[in-house]
Amino acid sequence: MPQHVTTAHTPDTSNTIAHREWWRDAVIYQVYPRSFADGNGDGMGDLPGVTARLPYLKRLGVDAVWLSPFYTSPQADAGYDVADYRTVDPMFGAMPDADALVREAHALGLRVIVDVVPNHCSEQHEWFKQALRDGRDSPLRERFHFRPGKGEDGQLPPNDWESVFGGPAWTRVADGDWYLHLFAPEQPDFNWEHRAVHDEFHSILRFWLDLGIDGFRIDVAHGLVKAAGLPDIGHEEQVKLLGSQAVPYFDQDGVHEIYRSWRRILEEYAGERIAVAEAWTPTVERSALYLRPDELHQAFNFEYLTTGWDAAELRAVIDRSLDAMNSVAAPATWVLSNHDVVRHSTRFSEGDEARGLRRAKAATLLMLALPGSAYIYQGEELGLPEVTELPDEVRQDPAFFRSAGQDGTRDGCRVPLPWSGEQAPFGFGPADGGPSWLPQPASWKRFSVRAQEGDPASTLEFYRSALAVRREHPALGAGRDVEWLDAPDGVLSFRRTTARGTVVCTVNLTAEPVTIAAPGTVLLSSAESVGAAGQVSIPADATVWWAA
Ligand code: GLC
How far is the CA of 413 from the centre of ligand 1 (A)? Predict the structure, then answer.
């Protein structure tokens, strides 16, 4: 039962630039609710905490907020194990808090995207509990992938698939059957061959659309359909294939019919509601298939996220992404960090924090100049580094405990944000010295919002300027193409033209300053000093935007 029934409402965009297809060049900020802001002082971020900080996000200059899951969940995978898709976990608040968040956001002209997790649920989901309770003949088992085991006594898993978090993708229950879980054992996979699963998710989408949300981020969008017969792969093959080619449990063609039906539901609602796929596909061309006109609106560009600080590689992935997305008339998306990967300031640092931050800022200006939509992960606007020295006893990422899987440790990018003050949790919660579910390093005092606000040299003010300039210059973000300009080795330079002006973006990815002829007047630079006109010097690891 819903905890609270509300009427639908749409965002008040009167104080923003309202235009058609807002999502084509939107900047979308990812809030990871447990680590954003803790309103009640229990050490865990919550929805009232987010609502209270919405003016901060408005001031930052983003268009929309995407919230990672806040639904009722035993938190075996930080909320990506959902027990009830229509309620708020008490740890995050209650339904009226979700409603208030959406209303406040809309009043500020911010859109709200919520996560939907359709590949799997929690072992505490009613269907799964009943499937176990009612035994082997339960019709509820058909909504999951239950199978007898192999071997004389059924003591071996039904096939050789492995969990993304490490170990077998199958767990045996007391009566001897096995069930499939591509992630943790607490996350049983739904069987999307079953009509009831489709109907249930249609209803869940409508539930949140009726509340007024503007879109969905679809978790593991590539995983829903499994190859018929659940064929073996072979261990070696599996390791090799993951991420490079299709495996029988990811990116199967059958997923597209599901998203066509979801798109039809989104279209029934006024206000341009959207869906963005978290689809780790082998290529951007495969990602583009999710974005055909009758399917989803966006997909995360993980190929871009995983590209290093290298001019040739970045240029190649930008070209490939734009070609693939333009072939289906979808916007490209650009993303550098999220709650599953090492923060990009640390990825780019090669062990030198200052270099990491320099490159992170340069990478941000590059990302924000490209045509399409950009995603910002909470805390990157503060220049937060990955926390690499968390003691094992505070870690919560199931991937850490199941070893080999995914990145191994995803807690280091999930440490609560520092907002203000002299001691931990630095304004994350209401009290100095109060709890935070993961400890912040003492050095985070200098990264707090309060410490940076008003300081023109700070990362926060740099992000604010970048987003403000992007808003004023549609050539940053709008449109579909880039025009590459001649540039020295290790330097990327491209021009973007729209009816409302021309902008050039130049990125020096080398370790030395480079001298070039200024292509215009400087709009913004990620480094402090660039010459004014004529021959100018761009420092190492820096990006400059020019009005041309
Ligand atoms: C997605 C989420 C990740 C989660 C996994 C399983 O990859 O981003 O955090 O662990 O799905 O739901």
Answer: 14
